[in-house]
Amino acid sequence: MSRSPSIPDRPHRDIDPDLPDNERLEALHGHFSDLVDVNEQLASQLEQAEDRREQLRERVDRVERENETLKGSSLYIATVEDVLDNDEVVVKQHGNNQEVLTDVSPRMLERLEAGDRVAVNDSFAVQTILDAETDARAQSMEISERPQVTYGEIGGIDEQIREVREAVEQPLAEPELFEDVGIEPPSGVLLHGPPGTGKTMLAKAVANETNATFIKMAGSELVRKFIGEGSRLVRDLFEMAREREPAIIFIDEIDAIATTRTESKTSGDAEVQRTMMQLLSEMDGFDARGEIRIIAATNRFDMLDRAILRPGRFDRLIEVPEADQDGREQILQIHTRGMNVDDEVDFDDLAEETDGYSGAEIESLTTEAGMFAIRNDREEVHHEDFLNAIEKIEDDDSSDVISSAGYFYQ
Ligand SMILES: Nc1ncnc2c1ncn2[C@@H]1O[C@H](COP(=O)(O)OP(=O)(O)OP(=O)(O)O)[C@@H](O)[C@H]1O
Ligand SMILES: [Mg+2]
Questions:
Q1: What is the mean pLDDT of residues 338-355?
Q2: Theoretical Cys-Cys bridge with 301: which of 69, 192, 274, 398, CB 3.0 to 4.6 Å?
Q3: CA distance 372 to 338
Q4: Comparing 101 with 405, which gets the higher pLDDT?
């Protein structure tokens, strides 16, 4: 805060009345110009003070307004849909989806972007912009209009791709097929299989291939510390999907919330149970022919509570197995597409050498091979680079880490 500037001294001059006229005149001249100087200084100080007063007044206004709104009732959550040029924004209130055009202060406007979550009051004035932490719910739900994965990037599981397309894509694209025959398409599809085999990829590819909104939520995100939070998230998830039909809800690592009831009865377990019950009730209350499909994935099928597999819930199970020889060859080819690979590289041989590797492990193998090429000052990746990479990965593995694929899957 700036202090008031010091005021210049008042000019003072004693003039002897007995001085000769010309000297007195000179002295008066000098005094006059001192007065003019001081006057100028004071004028500019006054101007500054007025500016400052204006600023302070604005601030008081703002603080008063903020105070007023803070004293007011609770705020609603909305999403900024669009920021217009004339200091206005379009916000969409969560829950009832009401869209409104509202004024915002220039100060707020600077910080607002389309897509921000904000708190609005009864008259839809934007009060605060919610930061990432306040906005944990939106954060844990990842919405993308179109994930970037295509079926062409998934190797070795063509049969599973076909099944998923039938169960998810077709009911969305051609619901009348199911109506004509008079059957309900599967409610939910559960992808299960060892880690790193392409389950998450597959779910994303389906969403890419349809025009559906893809809402992804990790099961671990649904496991919340606070009572009621997990089940509210599940409710939000389905509500969001209904708002954005056609939509695909993808719950990855569903085992986090749907494991069999354990003996321990801690409150944490009870909360996980509640979350799962909410999921089941959302699924039960679902019109399966609607425009929302549900996909879940897990690599801990053995742990799942069978309740989620009942008809009307996850009633289509698709096992995504570890890749076989042909599959591995395809995956190798997919992940080396963008690489500068020597013609001599024998993928068939590499597929044999990588028996037991998951898709994810093959992907890191190709990167590792590229590293060997760089280390050898080459721009082209040779067969031996792949072999070196395999050797390195196996050395690393044999230390203390149990190779992930197949660990849970005997
Ligand atoms: N069948 C496959 N074809 C091509 N790439 C694959 C395949 N499977 C896995 N990958 C590679 O491994 C990465 C991880 O795959 P993904 O996340 O789909 O595995 P996941 O089955 O969901 O594993 P987890 O059970 O651990 O979640 C992918 O990004 C991809 O690069
Ligand atoms: Mg996954």
A1: 91
A2: 192
A3: 16
A4: 101
N-term to C-term CA, the chain:
71
* Inter-CA distances, 347 with 34, 91, 190, 311, Å: 95, 54, 32, 43
Bridge partners (DSSP) listed for residue 214? 144, 248
What's the gap in Å between 168 CA and the centre of ligand 2? 18
Which amino acid residue places its CA nearest to atom 10 of ligand 1?
Answer: 359
Of the candidates 370, 359, 308, which has an alpha carbon nearest to the alpha carbon of residue 334? 359
> CA 362, 367, 373, 375 torsion: positive or negative?
negative
Which helix (H) or strand (E) segment holds residue 164: the answer is helix 158-164
Stronger pLDDT, 289 or 123, i.e. the higher one: 123
What is the residue type of 202?
L
Going by the DSSP 8-state scheme, the letter that residue 170 receives in this structure is H
Residue 254 Cα to ligand 2 middle (Å): 10
Structure tokens at 199: 């389950």
Task: Output DSSP code: residue 18.
Answer: T
Cis bond before residue 186 (omega within 30° of 0): no
Taking residues 112-139, report their average pLDDT. 73
Block residue for tokens 């007044």? 57
Q: Which residues, other chains included, contact 261 with Cβ-Cβ below 8 Å and sequence gap of 6+?
A: 269, 273, 305
Average confidence (pLDDT) over 258-279? 70
> Span 217-243, mean pLDDT?
77
**Nearest-CA residue for atom 26 of ligand 1:** 195
Instruction: Note the pLDDT of residue 273.
Output: 79
pTM of the model: 0.65
CA atoms of 319 and 326, how far apart (whole Å)? 18
Pocket of ligand 1 (CB under 6 A): 154-157, 195-201, 297, 299, 331, 334, 359-360, 363
Provide the pLDDT for residue 3.
58
HSE-CB at 365 with a 13 A cutoff on CA atoms is: 32
- Which ligand 1 atom sits closest to the C-alpha of 334? 4
Residue 36 has pLDDT above 80, yes or no: yes
Mean pLDDT of 351-360: 92
One-letter identity of residue 172: L
The type of residue at 300 is R
* pLDDT score recorded for residue 351: 93
